[in-house]
Amino acid sequence: RLLANNGLIGSMGRSYGAGDNASMESFFSLLQKNVLNTRRWENREDLRLAIVTWIETKYNRRRRQRALGKLTPVEFEMIYAAANAA
């Protein structure tokens, strides 16, 4: 009911399907540890800015992803773009 009252729709994977959403679970765990739980946020705009800053300066540029061959998302994107430009 809480979701509906706030205009949201819940999403659930299959029961006991740990791999269904593992990458997003990992991302949100890191987001919670590195941004959400670091302080009490005064307003949504401050939190939004902190999330975007963390994603763009730390997560996408420094964190190597196993699914991307141990490259960061930025490195992967640059290699992919160069390969497709040729």
From TrEMBL:
Listed GO biological process terms: DNA integration
Annotated ranges, domain Integrase catalytic: 11-73
Coiled coil: none
Domain of life, source organism: Bacteria
Listed name of the protein: Integrase core domain-containing protein
Source organism (scientific name): Nocardioides terrae
Lineage, uppermost ranks: Bacteria, Bacillati, Actinomycetota, Actinomycetes, Propionibacteriales
